[in-house]
Amino acid sequence: MSVTVDNVLQALSRVLDPDLKKDLVSLGMIRDIEVSDLKVSFSVVLTTPACPLKESIKSSCIQAIHDWVHPDAEVQVNLSARVTTVNRSDGSSLKTVKNIIAVASGKGGVGKTTVAANIALSLAKSGARTALVDADIYGPSLPLMFGLVNEPIRAIQVNGQTKAIPLRKHGIDLLSIGFFVDASKALIWRGPLASSALKQLFFDTQWGEIDYMIVDLPPGTGDIHLSLVQSVPLTGAVIVTTPHELAIADATKAVNMFNNENIHVPILGVVENMSWFTPAELPSNRYYIFGDGGGVKMANDLKLTLLGQLPLIAPNNQSGIYVDNDMLSASQQLQPYFDSIVANLVRQVSISNAQKQELKTALP
Ligand code: ADP
Questions:
Q1: Ligand 1 and 109: CB distance under 6 A
Q2: Phi-psi map region of 209: left, alpha, beta (phi>0 left; psi -120 to 50 alpha)
Q3: C-beta 114 within 6 A of ligand 1
Q4: Could you report the per-residue pLDDT of 33-70, keeping only the tens digit for each?
Q5: Distance 230 CA to ligand 1 centre (A)
């Protein structure tokens, strides 16, 4: 076969995206094909910069050109990324945010905030434009965790409205209810007051172009959650639990809330935190302090994706895992686990967006 743009396109239409199960050409992922003698170059636009499959997609493309166009073709594949989203018609200040992912737990203290913050760090590291919103009205901890206590928030006027500007740290746009009120005062907010404060956090902020916004929800499944979940266009939710049976029982309630027919937010997966402990002096031992595999079983039983498990680590200070300054090291111990969790998460986001888009196209 001769080396022409058409033949290259035909060959690449035989390569399937492993997650979306459709060919790269019909998914619109192939761009800028150039051919000259035996030289072929083109771009593959991935669905996220954190794409775990980029190397395998690249080698499948090269193989397809060799198999179907010319065995001696010199192939250059350029990888770029365009994060998928489901087009939303809301004209709100969230319109520049492609994906909004809630991190939820039934129970407090299972590591929801730790997971939300570290997912955001891994995403930002992968090159995705990332925001982290601390919606944990009862215990906003991001200001402390990111070393931003007492940091002043700036505001600007946009079309006559005052909009807050998120703070930026470690490549993440951050906003917390704790930037506006004293954390101890936030604790006494109830019902409608908390709900309207939360909505302001999302809608009265000047967000830039964001690929993934991670939202640290308050623990539980109360009215505040319902109101938030109904007003903010969520892409999906991540459920955090420990393997302990009480945590699992509450996490299951959170799953049921998102599955409720009036809410219908897809569950992108489950993170099992504090799965085991390995003491430094016995590096090949695992102790299952809160039970073995409760979160894995829950994911299996409810047919959800297990995004990953995280070990219990010994924090190097008494008050927890922080991501700032000298306390960064405790968080770094968990980073390899989070990189793998994020690779699984962005796959689930791409799959979920593709399914929603298909559904939208199929509807009259
Ligand atoms: P939640 O948001 O669910 O209330 P946090 O993320 O605030 O939970 O975590 C509760 C406490 O547990 C914090 O002190 C945090 O540093 C600690 N923690 C969370 N995950 C781990 C872990 N894998 N190993 C050790 N400590 C952890």
A1: yes
A2: beta
A3: yes
A4: 999 999 999 999 988 877 778 888 999 999 999 999 99
A5: 28
